[in-house]
Amino acid sequence: MSDQRIGIASLSQPLKTLLLFLSILALVVPCVLGFVNFDKRLDITEIVQKDHIEKDEAKWEKAGDQIDEIKGDIHGLELIDRELEIKYAEILRRLEKSEMNDARIIEKLDNLVKAE
Questions:
Q1: CA distance 112 to 116
Q2: Alpha carbon distance 26, 21 (integer Å)
């Protein structure tokens, strides 16, 4: 063998260019694959997040339906409350009328007692 060393400097220009191209390719391909893989993970994360959002929206929709049902119940209770207020007012009116009648009856009885 000779004392000549084998190295990049002894290669021809086209081989040096090919070696440079392969070196760049060896660095770029793993980086690109890593970013593609990272992008897939982001897509998976976005899909999972979208599923969670849809589930939460469905829960809120159910809550909205329940609120609407409760509003109907509240309206029914308000109507019952108004009806009871009207009945209570009528009872008070009749009680006052009854008290006035009682007072007149007592007055008439007093007049009868004084007349005898």
A1: 6
A2: 9
The answer to whether the CB of 47 falls within 8 A of the CB of 41 is no
Provide the 10 A C-beta neighbour count for residue 16.
13
Q: How many residues are recorded in the chain?
A: 116
pTM score: 0.42
pLDDT digits (tens, 9 = 90+) for 34-85: 777 777 777 788 888 888 888 888 888 888 888 888 998 899 999 999 999 9
CB 4 within 8 A of CB 10: yes
Distance CA 34, CA 41 (A): 11
Amino acid at 75: H
| Amino acid at the residue 45 | T
